[in-house]
């Protein structure tokens, strides 16, 4: 029996769309556990033994596919990248491209950057959006794309060790 036949046998609703599967979280977790247990029986999941903890975050949409690779990704704690709306990232990418034309590509990985510079930029772009603007006058992109790009940039600088944390120490300590 191939994988698809096995999964269809274990979950006869797997061929239906999510609208037909109005499962509550408990039922979704139970079905996910059944499917993955069956995959172990068939030798599709390797040696990892499952506990109830593995299924705490699984919701109905996560079990629709019943794909062993998707199940393994859930168990391994991989980020569900499919949840990110890609059209939003395109705006952030254009903002980063605009910045690269002015300051150099990934300049924050070469020279240290300060938190407060980007906190200020994030706040200004949020205010721009709050004031009803949907297009930044400098780049032509949405102000929230600037917020997203700034957050991505700060996180990347943090990961690469080039972020200077110059936030007010009283704010950090909660004083």
Describe the protein's topology.
Blueprint: H1 3-10, H2 25-41, H3 68-75, H4 86-103, E1 113-114, H5 115-130, H6 143-159, E2 163-164, H7 169-173
Parallel strand pairs: 1-2
Helix pairs in contact: 1-2, 4-6, 5-6
- Give, in order, the helices and strands: HHHHEHHEH
Class from helix and strand fractions: mainly alpha
Strand sequence of the main sheet, in spatial order?
1-2
What's the average pLDDT? 76
Strand portion? under 5%
Helix content: 40-55%
Quaternary state reads: single chain
- Gyration radius (Cα, Å) is 23 Å
How many domains in all? Answer: 2
Short description:
The chain is mainly α.
Describe this structure as you would to a colleague.
With 175 residues, this protein is mainly alpha-helical. Helix 4 crosses helix 6 and helix 5 runs antiparallel to helix 6. The radius of gyration is 23 Å and the shape is elongated. A two-stranded parallel ribbon has the order 1-2. The protein is built from seven helices and two strands.
Which key features would you list for this structure?
175 residues, 2 domains, two-stranded parallel sheet, 7 helices, elongated
């Amino acid at each position: 029996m191939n994988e698809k036949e096995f999964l269809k046998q274990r979950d006869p609703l797997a061929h239906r769309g999510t609208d037909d599967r109005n499962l509550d979280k408990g039922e979704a977790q139970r079905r996910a556990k059944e499917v993955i247990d069956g995959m172990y029986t068939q030798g599709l999941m390797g040696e990892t033994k499952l506990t109830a903890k593995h299924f705490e975050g699984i919701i109905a949409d996560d079990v629709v596919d019943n794909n062993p690779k998707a199940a393994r990704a859930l168990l391994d704690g991989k980020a569900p990248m499919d949840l990110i709306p890609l059209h939003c990232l395109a705006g952030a990418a254009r903002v980063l491209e605009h910045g690269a034309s002015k300051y150099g590509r990934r300049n924050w990985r070469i020279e240290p950057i300060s938190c407060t510079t980007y906190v200020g930029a994030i706040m200004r772009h949020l205010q721009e959006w709050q004031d009803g603007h949907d297009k930044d006058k400098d780049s032509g992109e949405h102000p929230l794309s600037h917020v997203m790009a700034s957050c991505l940039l700060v996180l990347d600088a943090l990961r690469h060790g080039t972020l200077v944390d110059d936030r007010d120490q009283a704010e950090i300590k909660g004083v």
